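Suppose you are handed a protein chain with no further information: no name, no annotation, nothing but its sequence. What can you learn? This example shows the usual starting point.
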Amino acid sequence: MRVEVKSDLILWACDRSGRSIDSLAQQQTFRKLPSWVSGEARPTLRQLENFAKVTRTPFGYFFLHQPPKESVPIPDLRTIGNEHIGHPSPDLLDTMYICQQRQEWYQDFARSMGEKPLPFVGSVTLESNPVDVSRSIREVLGFDVEERRSIPTWTEALRRFISQADSIGIMVMLSGIVGSNTHRPLNPNEFRGFALVNPLAPLVFINGKDTKAAQMFTLAHELAHIWIGQTALSDVGPITIPSNNIEVWCNQVAAELLVPLDVLHDTYRGDIPLREELNHLARRFKVSTLVILRRLHDAGKLTREELWRAYEQELQRLKSISRGSGGNFYLTLPARVSKRFARALVISTLEGQTLHRDAFRLLGFSKLATFHELSRQLEVAI
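A reasonable first move is to predict its three-dimensional structure. Written in structure tokens, the prediction is:
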């Protein structure tokens, strides 16, 4: 059976997936793809189904009269210059949809458990002083600057930071792939993270394909979104100059949260080379050298030109450092879906409140043995 498909829809599917006509046509299944576009040939139903799968396109879209205008389902504050970024990738969209489904489930669970709205969600405004807000976040989290000084590595500091957010009711999901699909890596150049604000189930997602250094700042930035009560998709970094007032404010809060200026002034040594000072301060505050550069500029220790020059050099150095891989599935899964969410879902399923099939869908696997092992790792009795 041959299917009539408009060429605009085929071109649109390729464009949104980041695949070119030429590259796809090299595969035997799609060797006639150029002919589908020109109208000289039509795909079979099976060929169109395969094309939808490869391009991550919902199959029904190919029967529309024209390509749909897709947009992310939350406020999109990403910009290049002063222009909003368009054409979200299927990977970004699917990641957001998965997180929204998890948040909706957890909200219902929290209500059933009689949990109260979290008082810090939406507790401040844009008029609030970033220094005061950062101090409030540190107090609520128990995020002590001196404690971080004794933590050996950035990775452990980030893990501790996530654990602190989890303990006060914020689901933090850190992943570099879509769901559990290792063949669908997320692109850090497209987005760094997002916050889904909800008084019962606030959620922060961090792009795990970004550098460990960047992830720390992203978490701090998204926590500021939770405090101000503004759901948003972000791509900001330590020295980004956003055009949106909310992003500017959240960056200020994040920078002060990680590296308080008063402590920096007391710690800074101006009589040693910048490279040595960056390493010293990064170890002291357990943040990236990129954040340190931003704060040295804020403290008046670097000009804007010196900041940009040093930042580019440091960014290239960090990108050259391998990120490591994989790890134990049962240790990485709670980090990808949030330990708070995973525990709640396992408990609800074992108590018969949630169907196993729904739990498997939300967790991203399909085997009962995997579920039982996860419950043991989470120390939830079976």
